[in-house]
Specification:
Blueprint (H helix, E strand, L loop, with lengths): L1 H10 L4 E6 L4 H10 L4 E3 L6 H12 L4 E5 L17 H8 L3 E6 L7 H14 L4 E9 L2 H13 L5 E6 L7 E2 L2 E2 L14 E3 L28 E5 L9 H9 L3 E5 L13 E4 L8 H5 L3 H10 L4 E4 L1 H4 L4 E3 L5 E3 L7 E4 L5 E6 L5 E6 L1 E4 L17 E3 L2 E4 L1 E4 L4 H9 L2
Helix pairs in contact: 1-2
Length: 407
């Protein structure tokens, strides 16, 4: 639905910026495929209300319309109804209106009590539901029935609907495939707008929030960053954070076998899909330079798939073993079921998210570097910090800067 809405707004010649509620990496890539602009994550747990407000304010200055894709149901969060981490809590913190997406398959009059219940609870939270978007609608007549009953019962208007035969995006074990892998569907003939101007229903983002500036914590640092199809889970805000802290970013590709960039002071190995490129990675010419880099005592931050690269082997879904860098004494084994999922916060105050299907196997006792209470405790070796957690750098600028400086 979000992609159809973005396509419609672009077709109407609006300057659009997009956001994703929660820690998802893949949905923002699809947003960017339409808007040609970075899509940023916002949430009240990992990123925090203040950082989310500032991100929204900063990006809204460059656009006519800012759209945030929610996560799960409106009131689904870590617990309770509309509590921590929910889309409703984010809407409340940002003071933005909500377009409620309703699965309308086989429904007509029943949409009224469903919508009225959502509206009543949202109102208690100080959240406004400004309009309804109906999904899986059978026909224009079906849409007309929904529009009429909502109007007759003084509910928010039906502003748009999606036909039941609209195309869907393919998925794999971590969610949607990447937009570089398949063609972007054209939703224009399936997405129908019922109001004269959708933009009129958007409230302006508060662009008057102060954008905080501070003394750069990584001034003069050269940070090598793995970025390719295997290491692709990178929050755009993390790259911006590093640049704002004065770092110079040097990108390289383990899949292509690039050596660690010359002059790099520190190294970041983000997560992604190493299991899909295991053969190429097993032959990578990156590993000798990586071993030399680590042996020299230089700091390395490895996240999820990036941490898997440091092990002895990666065992794929077909149970085939592929050699990795062999720096840390463990093997990463893919499994069909989810291994772990959830927000994480270390005792130092830095926040992140864990979501993976692989497990770490080792015959040795590994030294942890985290005190998260729940989830992966990570592995510490020399100046290497490796874990399954994807960190949000701005959640603790001093902490991440110390890690990347080897402190």
């Amino acid at each position: 639905m979000m992609l159809a809405l973005l396509q419609y707004l672009k077709a109407q010649q609006h300057r659009v910026v997009s956001f994703k509620a929660g820690p998802d990496f893949l949905d923002p890539l699809w947003h960017q495929a339409i808007t040609d602009k970075c899509s940023y994550n916002l949430d009240t747990r990992m990123i925090g209300a203040t950082n989310s407000q500032q991100l929204l304010a900063k990006q809204a200055l460059t656009a006519d319309v800012a759209v945030i894709e929610g996560v799960m149901g409106l009131f689904d969060g870590r617990s309770g109804v509309g509590e921590s981490g929910s889309s409703a809590e984010l809407a409340q913190a940002l003071q933005v209106p909500v377009f409620l997406v309703v699965d309308a398959k086989g429904m007509s009059g029943s949409i009224v009590p469903l919508v009225s219940g959502f509206c009543a609870y949202a109102e208690k939270m100080g959240v406004k539901i400004a309009g309804i978007i109906a999904n899986r609608v059978g026909s224009a007549h079906h849409a007309s029935l929904l529009k009429t009953v909502l109007q007759e019962h003084q509910q928010p208007p039906l502003i748009a609907w999606m036909a039941k035969d609209a195309p869907v995006l393919p998925e794999r074990h971590l969610g949607l495939v990447q937009p570089s892998e398949v063609a972007l569907p054209d939703f224009s003939s399936f997405f129908h707008v019922e109001v004269e101007s959708l933009v009129a229903l958007f409230s302006e983002a508060d662009s008057h929030l102060a954008i905080q500036n501070s003394t750069p914590l990584l001034r003069g640092k050269k940070i090598a960053i793995a970025q390719d199809a295997a290491c692709c889970f990178i929050y755009p805000a993390n790259l911006e954070f590093l640049r704002e802290q004065g770092a110079e970013l040097l990108f390289f590709s383990p899949v292509a076998g690039d050596v660690i960039p010359e002059g790099a002071d520190t190294l970041w190995l983000p997560g992604g899909y190493p299991e899909l490129f295991a053969e190429a990675l097993s032959l990578s010419n990156t590993w000798p330079s990586l071993r030399t880099f680590i042996a020299a005592g230089k700091p390395v931050l490895a996240e999820c798939g990036g941490a898997m690269l440091l092990g002895e082997a990666l065992i794929d879904h077909e149970d085939k073993s592929w050699a990795m860098a062999s720096i840390l004494p463990f093997r990463s084994k893919m499994q069909t079921r989810l291994a772990s999922l959830g927000y994480r916060e270390d005792a130092t105050g830095i926040k992140g998210h864990e979501f993976h299907h692989s497990v770490r196997e080792s015959e040795q006792k590994l030294e942890p570097y985290l005190q998260t209470g729940r989830g992966d405790q990570g592995v510490r070796y020399k100046q290497v910090r490796a874990s399954y957690v994807h960190w949000y750098f701005a959640s603790a600028p001093e902490v991440i800067s110390k890690w990347l400086s080897g402190n």
